[in-house]
Amino acid sequence: MDVALEFLDPLVLDKAYAWVLPASDFGLSNSSCSGLSAANATSQWSRDNIYRQILSILVITQLGATSLYLFFSAISYYLVFDRRLEYHPRFLQNQVRLEIKSSLSAIPFINILTLPVFLAEVRGKSLLYSNASDYGWSWLVISAILYMAFNDFAIYWIHRLEHHPSVYKYIHKPHHKWIVPTPWAALAFHPLDGYVQSLPYHVFVFICPMQRYLYLVLFVGVQIWTIFIHDGDMITGHWTEKFINSPAHHTLHHMYFTVNYGQYFTWADTYFGSHRAPEPSLDPIHDALKVMRAKGLVDEQGNPVNHEKKE
Q1: What is the reported pTM?
Q2: Can you give the C-alpha Rg of the chain in angstroms?
Q3: 161 near 116, Cβ under 8 Å?
Q4: 3-state secondary structure (DSSP) of residue 256
Q5: Contacts of 241 (CB under 8 A, 6+ apart)
């Protein structure tokens, strides 16, 4: 978040705050402003003002999270997601609209819950650092590996514990409303669910040093990954499926609930006995095609028969 402010303060935020809260409104003379930088002298709220930082963080996270969600969900939905899955018997009426509504409703509350962590990062309480030379170039690779391993292990157990009966119906059940999800379901969480599952990403930089630009790339990357694992792509038989928690694995998680809790990799599911390997026979497209055949939309081989889906 400090990287975002470093970029946006001189680009737009300094001018915005100067317009909303000009320093002249409070009777500041030229001499009283002489100790301030040129970037801060025109606003009552300097860049290190905590109220300005809070407001800036809330605006940036809201616009950033919403933009990432809409852009990459649209790419995944229109270019990757098999639209025939919308005929699956467990695909809800108006599901896409409901997924989008749920996601957009959750984002601001997740941002508010995450605000203290972002604020602590901006105010220098984390172990984020700027110069790669401070810890050496090899540490960039090591810290990235540690970041992913830490998140994968922590989220595995957070996710698995959320499936405990005493917790599931209160927090995680809203996300499993989507038995056959689309990419639009990526953020369709109860806000507390989304917040808790995001905590490992933030906690890591308070216990382990990480270069801040690397952290930003990995943090944005996991948001995109969260969208793409909801694309319903049941690719099977590839050697990577033994190691990578792919969209196929996550599709099975939504369908069978108690398998494939991992975030990036399958090792935790394999070790703790919750792994279920994707198989062609488990692909939800089979049930979708049955419905389409019954409607006369496809032939026995699944080829379209020149009927369009009714909206």
Answers
A1: 0.85
A2: 23
A3: no
A4: helix
A5: 235, 248, 249, 266, 277, 278
Report which residue type is found at 199: L
Alpha-carbon distance of 268 to 261, in angstroms, equals 8
Residues 6+ apart with CB under 8 A from 242: 266, 277
The first and second tokens of residue 199, run together, are: 């905590």
pLDDT tens column, 60-103: 999 999 999 999 999 999 999 999 999 999 999 999 999 999 99
Long-range contacts of range 127-135, CB-CB < 8 Å, 24 or more positions apart? 127/205, 127/206, 127/207, 127/208, 127/209, 127/210, 128/2, 128/205, 128/209, 128/210, 128/211, 128/212, 128/215, 129/209, 129/210, 129/211, 129/212, 130/211, 130/212, 132/211, 134/209, 135/209, 135/211
Give pLDDT tens digits for 23-56: 864 444 444 444 444 444 588 888 888 999 999 9
